[in-house]
Amino acid sequence: MAYNRFKGLGVALVTPFTKNGDVDYVALRRLLDYQLSNGVDFLCILATTGETPCLTSEEKSKIKELVVEKVNGRIPVLMGCGGYNTAAVVEVLRTEDFTGIDGILSVCPYYNKPSQEGLYQHFKAIAEASPVPVVLYNVPGRVGVNMTAETTLRLANDCHNIVGIKEASGNFTQIDDIIKNKPSHFDVISGDDGITFPLITLGAVGVISVIGNALPKEFSRMVRLALNGDYPNARQIHHKFTELFKLLFVDGNPAGVKAMLNSMGLIENELRLPLVPTRITTMEKISAIVKELNIKC
Question: What is the C-alpha separation between 173 and 138, in angstroms, rounded?
Fold first, then answer.
C-alpha cells in the first residue's frame, strides 16, 4: 500500500517569466535554491500557482526536468496532473516519464461539473493508471464542483494508491469529517494558507502553500510548531501573517505572491494572460510588509 510523503510545508511553486514572456529558468533555479535552503518539506510543481494552463508541453517538460535535477531526491516532488477529460489524464499517466516525481496532485474536473459518482469514477481511473501515489485536490471555488467527504472517504478506502487530499473547500465540517473517518494511509493537507493553523489542530498534516514561495523559513516554522502541538507559538506566527494572507489573494493567485517575490528581488513581476500583475496599490502594501518583516533572501 502507498503512503503519504507530503507532510509539513509544501510549496506550490510559481513559474517565473522574463520581461519578454519566456519562462525564466535562471530565476527558477534561484527560487529552488531559496526553497531548498529554507526548510521546505516538499515541492508542488506545475499546478495552479505555476500558471500551468498557460505553459506549453515543452515548457512543462523542461520545468519538470529542471526541478527533478535540482532537487536530486532531497525532498519529495508532487506534480500537477489533472483535467476534465479522464481518458486524456489516464493517457498521460500511462505514457509519460515520472522519474524523480514522487506523486501527482490531481484536481477535480473543472467546467463540466460531474456528479459525485462521476468524481469517484474519474479518480478511480486515475489511481489505477498512476505509476506514483495520488493526492486529490478539492477546490470548488475554482472548478465549480465540491467533492463531498463521503466521496473522498470512498476513494481513500477503495484506492490504496490515493494517499491524501489537498482540501481547499474552506468547509471545516467537511474537512473534519474526512480527518475523523479516513483510513490510516490517507492524510488531509491544507490547500489554503490562511486556515492551515486551525486545520492542523484538527489533524491535517501540512499545507501546499502559496506564501511559502516567499516565506519558506517563517511559514515552515509555524507549520512545524503546530504539528508538534505548540499551538501558542504557532498561533503567534499565524496571526503575524493574517494581513499578508489577504493581500496575496485580493488580485488573484499567483499575482500577489509574484509581486512579493519581485519586491524581494527573486523574480520579475510577470504573468501570462489571461492573468495580469497585481494592482499598484496592492503591490505597495505588499512591499511595505516585506520591508517591515525585514526578509532576507
Answer: 14
